[in-house]
Each structure stands twice: as structure tokens, then as C-alpha cells.
Specification:
The chain has 450 residues and is an all-alpha fold. The chain has one domain. The chain is built from 21 helices and two strands. The N terminus is likely disordered.
């Protein structure tokens, strides 16, 4: 049962640029990793899910110690027992890349203040979420989330409910970015492996549009019901305070553009991260204090993400290594299995290495090498359905949990700072992602991958 849980528990991060998949010769050199080495990862997931519910104040004070202590156990195991420091170095570099992207976009987007006029209606919210979902393919899910979340919270502040934030995470922080390599890190890794830049949009747009429309429709009916119940109170409060439209800090769009362009810089090592943090520093120093004040900008959300994901990146190493060594035993051969397998694992584990592991496995089914350009061309021509299934699974299922993708937790933290009490980790899954997203993903499987 524990093995099945570890194999399915895949729902988490989304580390950006470096893949954690290992080439065949590297896999052969990996020391055998027992499944019980994944226990710290399971404990950390359980703590994130349960401790805020058991004792919220205790968790707020002690989550850094919990996350970093559990991560340290795995680091010590790899360093002193397995003596595999290179694996730790690889993951550390991957984490630096992840937090550099997340952090720099957080700072640059935090310098842009947008105030929309009036109070948002259900239809206006639908249009706003649709626009943010499209923008996610240009700014990335992280950039779009950081740019759109604060105005969205403000225009809904008189009737803000947890489901508003949940559907924002569903759409802008995840599903929206499925069309381009910029949209989500797994797709960027596919681009680096040789999948053409516009291939994804050509093969995925129909699925993306279907899921986007269905999820927006569900949101509209929920929001309309909530709006109708509070209509009179909203009208009275809106009359007390009439606000005008306002936009400040637009020069930060330049810094956002620099950060996104840096994604495509590969060499020399760390130059990409240096560019990103340089742009973030330039943004922070050139943004007026009153703009940050209007955004209620501070570093608490990025601090929480940095600490929790440091533990997640460390503790998930054994789970990923076990999959590298044992994925061939899972008997996955059909695109439908790749869709569900990639999706379920991308819900708790980093969706970038998960994407690459399953993509490598798909190539192996046909005795092809993912790093051979000729083999890539053959695969795209004859077996493209596998790439379609893996791409959709990796991106869409990141919405299944708060830790399914980097921006998810950050959006949750910003919403908390705005005064909203977001739904709990388990509540997010049980009340929203399972009843809303899983049926939609089932329809996708039925129509495209069965």
C-alpha cells in the first residue's frame, strides 16, 4: 500500500529549468534507493496537510524547522550513507533555479499596482480569469499569477470567498499555461529536448480550450450563486466607497520581460539566475514605496514558499530516484496510462522531472533515445500522442493540490495576507480539486486518450 501511495502521490512543485531525469548511463550508476527513504517526504506532505488544521499557530511558528529538519535527514542519507553528493548538488541547483524564477517574478510583479474600477460581477470575473489564463502562456503561470492576483482580490474584496482563490489557482496558476514552453516548466524542458516551440499549441489547444471553458463555466455558476446571496450588501458597501481605476509601476513590465527572456539562457551555469535576481533588484529599487504599500507588498509569501519547497525538493529525491530505477516495472504502455501516471505524480512531485521521466519511458517503448534529434523527429511524426498525453497531464494536474505547482502556495499566502482564510490543504483537495477537476480530466481521457 505504501508503494502504491508513493507511486501515485505525485502532485507537487514544478521546478523550472533543470530536469531531474537522468540519462541511461547515469541511472545505471545510481545506488539502489529503498522505498522507505521516501518516508520524510510523506511526513512533510502530511504535516503541510494536517498541522495547520491541528494547530495553526504552532505550524506558523515551526514550519521552517519541520521542513528543513526533514530535508536534512535526506541530505545526510545521500551524503553519508549513499555517498551521492552529485545528486544533492543537482537538486540544489534545480532548487536555486526554481526559487530564482519564482522569487524574481514575485518581486517584479509586486511592483505593478493595478486597481480596477467598481466591483466585480460573476461575468467580469470569468473574463478576468480567462484573460489571466491566456497571459500565463506569455508570462508563465508564475508571472501571470503574481500580476493578476492582487487586482483580482481587490475587486472581489466585498464578497471574497475561498473558491475565488481556488479557481484562480486552477486556471491562471496551472491550466492556463499549457500552450507554450514559457507557460509551464515541463513544457520548457520538452522544448530544450527538441520539441518545436509551437508544436504544443498545435496539439493541445483543443484540450486546453475544452478544460478552460468547462472550469470557467463551473466557476461562473458558483460565483453567480454567491453574488446573488450578497447582492444587497455589496451594493451598500460599494456606495460607501467609490474607487477609480489606477495603474502604477508599469516600468516593471520591462523587468518581467528580462526575467522571462532569461529562461532561455542556458550557459554559463547560474548566469540565468544572476540575470533574474538582477532584474528583481532593479525592479525593487526603482519602484516607489507607495506602489508597494498599495499592493501591501512584503516578502512573507516568498519566504514561506522558499522554506517549504527547500524541504520538498530535498525529501522528494528518494521518491524520484526510486521511480528512475523502477518505472519500467509499472507496465505503462498506452497514452492514457501516461496521461494519468504523469498527472498523478505531477500532483505531489516536481512535474518537470516527472514529465521527463515519463517522456524518456515513452521513447524507450519504441527503442528511441530522447536526446537523439533524429529519434525526436521520428517520435513526433509517429508517436506524438504520448507527448500530448504527458504534456497535458504534467500541466493540468499541478492544480490538484497547493503544492502541485510553485505559484499555488504563493497565491494562497497572498490571499491570506489580504484577510481571507483560504481552504485547508485537505479541504482544497476534497472540496474542490477532486469534485471539480477530476471529472473534467476524466472527460479529457475519454475524448482524447482512451
Amino acid at each position: 500500500m505504501f508503494r502504491a501511495f508513493t507511486a501515485l502521490v505525485g502532485f507537487v512543485v514544478g521546478s523550472p529549468f533543470l530536469g531531474a531525469n537522468l540519462h541511461a548511463e547515469e541511472v545505471e550508476s545510481i545506488p539502489a534507493v529503498p522505498l522507505y527513504a521516501s518516508i520524510p517526504f510523506v511526513v512533510l506532505l502530511a504535516a503541510i496537510a494536517l498541522m495547520p488544521f491541528v494547530s495553526h499557530k504552532w505550524w506558523e511558528r515551526n514550519y521552517p524547522w519541520v521542513s528543513l529538519s526533514l530535508g536534512s535527514i535526506v541530505v545526510a542519507y545521500y551524503l553519508f550513507i549513499l555517498q551521492n553528493s552529485s545528486r544533492l548538488f543537482h537538486t540544489a541547483y534545480e532548487y536555486v533555479s526554481f526559487i530564482s524564477l519564482i522569487g524574481s517574478l514575485f518581486v517584479a510583479a509586486g511592483g505593478i499596482h493595478i486597481r480596477l474600477r467598481g466591483r466585480s460581477t460573476p461575468m467580469a470575473n470569468v473574463i478576468y480569469l480567462a484573460a489571466g489564463s491566456i497571459a500565463a502562456n506569455i508570462l508563465g503561470t508564475t508571472g501571470a499569477s503574481m500580476l493578476f492576483i492582487r487586482p483580482y482580490l481587490r475587486v472581489n474584496k466585498y464578497r471574497l470567498r475561498p473558491f475565488h482563490v481556488v479557481f484562480f489557482i486552477f486556471l491562471i496558476s496551472n491550466i492556463g499555461g499549457a500552450l507554450t514552453p514559457i507557460g509551464d516548466p515541463p513544457l520548457f524542458m520538452g522544448y530544450l529536448k527538441g520539441i518545436p516551440f509551437f508544436w504544443v499549441i498545435g496539439k493541445v489547444w483543443e484540450i486546453w480550450l475544452l478544460v478552460l471553458v468547462v472550469v470557467l463555466a463551473i466557476f461562473y455558476f458558483l460565483d453567480r450563486h454567491s453574488f446573488n446571496r450578497l447582492r444587497e450588501r455589496i451594493r451598500e458597501q460599494a456606495e460607501e466607497e467609490r474607487e477609480r481605476a489606477e495603474v502604477n509601476g508599469l516600468h516593471n513590465l520591462v523587468f518581467l520581460g528580462i526575467i522571462i527572456a532569461a529562461v532561455f539562457v542556458e550557459r554559463p551555469p547560474l548566469i540565468r539566475e544572476v540575470i533574474m535576481w538582477g532584474a528583481a533588484l532593479g525592479s525593487y529599487l526603482t519602484t516607489k514605496r507607495e506602489v508597494h504599500a498599495k499592493n501591501e507588498f512584503n516578502f512573507v509569501p516568498i519566504k514561506e514558499v522558499a522554506i517549504l519547497f527547500a524541504g520538498i525538493f530535498a525529501t522528494m529525491i528518494p521518491a524520484l530516484d526510486w521511480l528512475d530505477l523502477n518505472s519500467w516495472k509499472l507496465g505503462i504502455t498506452h497514452p492514457a496510462q501516461f496521461f494519468w501516471g504523469t498527472g498523478m505524480l505531477s500532483s505531489f512531485l516536481d512535474n518537470t522531472p516527472t514529465y521527463l521521466n515519463f517522456l524518456s519511458a515513452a521513447f524507450g517503448l519504441f527503442h528511441l533515445n530522447i536526446d537523439n534529434p533524429h529519434h525526436m523527429a521520428l517520435f513526433l511524426e509517429n508517436h506524438w500522442k504520448y507527448i500530448q498525453a504527458i504534456s497535458v497531464g504534467a500541466v493540468f494536474f499541478g492544480a490538484m493540490t497547493y503544492i502541485g505547482n510553485g505559484p499555488n502556495f504563493m497565491v494562497k499566502s497572498i490571499a491570506e495576507q489580504s484577510g481571507l482564510k483560504p481552504v485547508s490543504f485537505l479541504g482544497y483537495i476534497v472540496r474542490y480539486s477532486i469534485p471539480v477537476l477530476l471529472p473534467v480530466f476524466f472527460v479529457v481521457w475519454l475524448l482524447y486518450f482512451r
